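Q: What does the predicted 3D structure of D-aminoacyl-tRNA deacylase look like?
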Amino acid sequence: MLDVVPAGWVDTHVHLNYPDFAEDLPEVAQRWREAGIHRLVHSCVTPEEFPQLQAIADQYPEVFLSVGLHPLEARQWQPDMAAQIAQLAAADPRVVAIGETGLDFYKSDPADIELQKQAFQAQIAIAQSQDLALIIHCRDAAEATHQMLSQAIAEAGPVRAVMHCWSGSPAETREFVALGCFVSFSGIVTFKNAQLVRDSALEVPLSQLLIETDCPFLAPTPFRGKRNEPAYVERVAHTLADLLHISPEQLAEQTSQNAAQLFRLPILA
């Protein structure tokens, strides 16, 4: 974990390997560096894309990695995939998390829900056994997600988890906060019609709060509808700072410390 966290921001959830960045990733990186983003956590949708993530981290040492299977890819799940994810995580010291995993009952075929649960349960266990963070995707599935996570903790011990791109209700937020989860907010918190998300942000202690872009998705206001990129995490942060009545500098320091704690980010040379 960082002994001293540098001033600036941590974007705790990006997808830089997507085609949206194929033509100008060096320029995107220059903008995030100019914006003071000193760490990024690159999430993983399927294990097959992991070499792409590694290639990006080879170019940009401030990028750290996760490996896992997204719930909307649950049809790919096979029992041997757990061993594959565990091996990839153990083989690269830049891996700081398992995921993104979790449950998504909004877009998924009902027939896939059991596969989602199998994949989620297995990935929780990998995070526990390797002492890695767990990046949780949860959409219209808060009750089932909380139940599975609680059961896993009761049976096998604690897990460092983050509810990524959180858009749940205040009551749901309180449940995950009580479980010890970090809660990460994206550009959604800047949207005019997202008062529920802003209300939920008020339920998160500063010590459990994180920020992210989830780029290339969910660009914050005033960039909504355009490609999102890490430099825009400042917009998320400033909205949250205003909401919480703290300075952006205080939010930067606290969320960077939180990210360092959750992901155990090393000091860069």
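A (community wiki): The structure tokens above were generated from the sequence. The first strand starts at residue 9 and ends at 14. Strands lie at 9-14, 37-42, 63-67, 95-104, 133-139, 161-163, 182-185, 209-211.
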